Amino acid sequence: MSRPEPRADETIRVLPPSRRSHAPLAVAAAVLGLIVVGAAGWLLWPRAAHVPLPPAVTTPGPAPAPLTAFPIQTATEDQILHHVPTVLTVFRFASNPNILVLDFPSLHEQGLMLNRVAALVEKESLPRERVLTDAELAAAIQASGDSVDTYYYGHDYSAAALRRFFALADQENIALKPVEAELRDLVRQVGWLDPAAAGGLISIPAVGADSKVTLAARNAILRHELSHGEFFSNPTYAAYVHNFWLTALTEDERAGVRRFLGKEEYDTHEEELMYNEMQAYLMFTRDPLFFTPDMAGLTAKRLSELQAEFLAGMPAGWLRDVLASYPSTTAAR
Question: Could you give the CA distance from residue 235 to residue 287 in angstroms, rounded to a whole number?
Answer without folding.
Answer: 27
